[in-house]
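Thread: quick sanity check before group meeting

JM: Hey all, I'm pulling together slides for Thursday and realized we never actually wrote out the predicted structure for the chain we discussed last week. Dropping the sequence here so it's in one place. If anyone has concerns about the input, flag it before I start.
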Amino acid sequence: MKSLWAAAVLVLGLTLLMGCKEKKPEPEELLAEYMDLLGEEKYEEMYTYLTGEAKESIDQEAYVERYQNIYGGIEAMNIRVEIEEREEGHKDKKAVTQRVKYALTMDTLAGELSFNNIAIFTKDEEGLYKMSWDSQDILPGLYAGDKVRIKTIQAKRGNIYDQNQTTLAREGTASSVGLVPGKLGENREESLASLSELLEISVERIEKELNAGWVRDDTFVPLRTVSKDDYELKEQLLEIPGVMITDTTVRYYPFKEKAAQLTGYVQNITAEELEERKGQGYNQNSQIGKAGAERIYEEILRPRDGYSIQIIDADGYERSTVLEKPAEDGKDVVLTIDIILQQHLYQALEGDEGCAAAIDPRSGAVLAMASAPAYDPNDFVMGYTASAWDAVNNDETQPLYNRYLASWVPGSVFKPVTAALGLTNGSLNPGEEMENEGLSWQKDESWGSYEVTTLTDYPVKNLENALIYSDNIYFAKAAVNMGEEAFSQGLDSLGFGEEMEFDFDLKASSYGSEGKLGSETELADSAYGQGKVLVNPLHLAAVYSAFVNEGNMVKLYLRAGGEEGFWKEQVFTPEAAGEVLNGLYQVVEHPEGTAREAYRSGYRLAGKTGTAEIKDSKEDTSGTELGWFVGISGADTDKPLLMVMMIEDVKGRGGSHYVIPKAMTGFDVYNMGEEEEAEHEG
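JM (edit): ok, ran it. Output follows.
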């Protein structure tokens, strides 16, 4: 009985012992674990899977560094492995050595890299399989003394053209200033101090560049890019021992300030941008659009550099090409801009703070967008010195500010909008006279001390005359008769409070507080473009386009070949649009019209002036004024032009009358040619 009990205990013990014995992983399982770690970049843990013999051939630090350099250099991502089977003849699970076939696929900067390989596993003294690793497990054909080189094949960025194929942004040449360390000479400190002063970069930064690991005595170390035409600076630089100046390719903007806000500029990609755009084909040397058309059309313009992943032997010779991706040049962008008109508008604005926008009111093509003052986009490409950057940033005129993207108080250029809304909803009769005595008016005593004032008294106060004399009282009455609800609904139908469909981000036009008028007096003020009305210049151009399109607001576009059409349809009735347009012709053609200065015998022009007061209250006398002019020429021709111009701080300079001659330079050039002299009357 005792012997039976002992035997049972022995059997039970052996069973428990066998149950506790850990199952040793098979080579396929180990390979799967190893590849998971590879995808997670856990190279230190991968090293633990190697055989002792493999570890003798490479220590952990060198192993980790090799993977980091190679897989990091080719930007390996999304690593996938397909373990196929043990190689024929190595399927005996008791064998000391096992060979497992697998296919490895990864995304790299040169495209998808895929290769077949064989992992060799050998049992160690404890019976565990370990990987008999060598460099060919990184890449087939890679040996211990080899390196992997990533060769960049540079592609070109697309050019930007105007509608006549005039280049607005292209490849240009600048001068790269640098040092050859071995030629600095004995007076090193003095030379670096002189170089620091001329280039406006610190000696510490120069030293840092010279101490980079790749630098040798005969290496050219670039420090700063300067204009090729800055002969005086380059002459001074070349007097310093070791300085070398070479040509370098840069982005170039031939029209400089005249088209700066339009074209924008490119700069080197930042580390943050590179991280955000990981896997999109950018590298640390890429340039990227930072503003204007360069930023907006980045995906079209940007080049896709090509890459070649090569294995180089110990003597520096190319052993093989692992993978190659050809370079892909960026595509050109053609804009609807007429650069001749653009230049004239900017020149007209020079010396002032303001903006201008010109469109084809039939097609919606944007012909010019100018903001002044502006900056030279080439300075961003070259790199601002500290003093130059401080100067442009601290300039009170804000040359970096793009004024046609903002919204502004419109003043009297808003009156035709009020008129068209009233005519459309039937609250305004164009021939009916709105009686008023004197130059002020209030609805009743409920308005307290508030009154609407105007500048000119005139006979027959109908719509046409109200436009000719720019009568605040007439339009205030028109809005009050219309009512707050109808007026607000009318503005909403024009796109107030919503972003306009356009490639540039335009600030939405608005009225009241959060889209609501606070009182009847605010309604009256809003009718003639005061109160809390703010209008974006390009949006205003789109609204005015309805006057020549039977009440339809055109959809604006900036790229040539853009889709033509209407953004908002039937915002005004055709009759209302025609009535207002006829009135705008009279504003220019009538001898008493506020825009009589714009009259030309060579072509017909419809127009409206506006002087917007910017002040804290009705009683405020210290505020400033914005001057506006909106004009339409060639409405019945195949070459129509609608232009909006706004200039800040025109108080004491003639108000809107300061703007008219400046805007007319653009109309004259567009309608009569640059060489023709337009006849002025009145």
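AS: nice. The mean pLDDT is 91. The first helix runs from residue 2 to 20.
JM: adding both to the slides.
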